[in-house]
Specification:
Number of helices: 17
Radius of gyration: 29 Å
CATH topology of the largest domain: Tetracycline Repressor, domain 2
Shape: elongated
Low-confidence stretches: none
CATH superfamily of the largest domain: SLC41 divalent cation transporters, integral membrane domain
Strand content: 5-15%
Length: 406
């Protein structure tokens, strides 16, 4: 582990100043924390100087409060003030992503006033700002792209074409921000405080980083892995992070083994059944995972609402029935021809039908139930679904075999 820390520190120190913020952001929270503890306050301050404000806050969040305060005091006063404002907002909210690179102007303002504001802003920041146009009451009218200012030769801003902008409260969760720009041409979202005053803007390109982080986190959860695991973790750390879910999986697998043990007599008479058991269980597990993936995505994006949840469950039951009909027919015909036993084909057909309907039902209902309990569906659903399809699949297959083949 010490060797990995040393290698990471050496790689960071040989990176250019402009690239150091990207290096930090490329690490997960655990490894970023390990690296920051090895850096001096001055080295962190230098990296934050080249960081965007929202990225700088992500780094400062990891540090202990007393060290964070020391580093903030080393920063330029203007940047320090902006970072303190961002840190005052709750984590994972729109307020944490606010970019202050914008200017406000009234709809009835003059072109000369706007040009003066643009020049002053550029002189202070060296950046071209987002131009937000407001009405006389301070309500956001939209964004005025700079190219339109150049192309439209008007003395007044009134009548200029604007891009409509989504407006959100600073408390809005980051996960829901992406919904605000879907179907619009807006490249920024305006963030307001509780009094309705503009705090800043969130750029859609920055939302892609949030989305990537959320998708990675959900992907890890879906696989039963903690989001803080990294490819460079030591074997012992990986084992510690993964073993909890593996042990839980072990006990759920043992419950399926108990079901199989109840049919020892049937299996001893018809050994061929053992060859088809993984087919029935595996198909149920795959179908359940497909349904789960659709449900988790729908819940995460807000497409699945409580009012229409039962129609989604009914749809997945229908899909499970039809998929069971198709796959059950295929495996039933293969088994009947292969083993020369039509009844074996019937048993497999019926077992496959039952298990894929069960997979569709549990794949849909378990994420909804966990969401209702305020438990992340991506974390625990797969274990319950796999257990259900294994147990019910084995139970249906071996019960039917006992009834029709012995």
């Amino acid at each position: 582990m010490k060797c990995q820390h040393k290698n990471m520190l050496e790689r960071y120190q040989t990176t250019s100043n402009e690239e150091k913020p990207h290096f930090l952001l490329g690490l997960n929270r655990y490894w970023r924390k390990q690296l920051l503890y090895q850096l001096s306050d001055e080295e962190i301050t230098e990296a934050l100087t080249y960081s965007d404000e929202d990225d700088a806050v992500t780094t400062l969040d990891i540090l202990a409060p007393h060290r964070r305060e020391c580093i903030l005091k080393l920063l330029h006063s203007a940047k320090q003030q902006k970072l303190r404002q961002l840190l005052s907002f709750a984590p994972h909210t729109a307020g944490r992503l606010v970019d202050s690179n914008f200017i406000e102007i009234k709809q009835n303002g003059s072109r000369a006033d706007l040009e003066t504001k643009l020049k002053n802003h550029y002189r202070l920041t060296g950046k071209s700002p987002t131009i937000i146009v407001e009405d006389k009451d301070g309500k956001v009218m939209g964004q005025l792209p700079i190219e339109r200012l150049v192309l439209e030769d008007r003395e007044s801003l009134k009548g200029m074409s604007l891009i409509r902008l989504p407006v959100v409260r600073y408390t809005l969760d980051q996960e829901h921000l992406i919904e605000k720009v879907v179907g619009t041409s807006a490249r920024v979202i305006v963030v307001i405080d509780k009094e309705g005053r503009i705090l800043g803007v969130v750029r859609t390109k920055n939302l892609l980083t949030v989305l990537e982080h959320e998708n990675t986190e959900d992907f890890y959860k879906f696989a039963g892995l903690p989001a803080e695991e990294h490819i460079y973790d030591s074997p012992l750390r990986s084992v510690r992070l993964r073993s909890k879910w593996l042990i839980i999986n072990l006990f759920t697998a043992l419950s399926a083994a108990v079901v199989v043990s109840m049919f020892q007599d049937t299996l001893s008479q018809l050994v061929i059944l053992a060859a088809f058991m993984p087919v029935v269980a595996g198909m149920g597990g795959n179908a359940g995972t497909q349904t789960l993936a659709v449900m988790v995505r729908g819940l995460a994006t807000g497409e699945i609402k409580a009012r229409g949840a039962m129609s989604v469950v009914a749809k997945e039951l229908s899909a499970g029935f039809l998929n069971g009909l198709i796959t059950g027919t295929i495996v039933g015909v293969i088994a009947a021809i292969w083993q020369g036993n039509p009844l074996l084909g019937v048993v497999l057909f019926l077992a496959m039908m039952v298990n894929l309907v069960v997979a569709g039902f549990f794949g849909a209902i378990i994420p909804l139930f966990l969401k209702m309990l305020r438990i992340d569906p991506a974390v625990a659903s797969s274990i319950f679904i796999t257990t259900a399809t294994d147990i019910i699949g084995f139970l249906a297959f071996l019960s039917l075999a006992t009834l029709l083949l012995t």
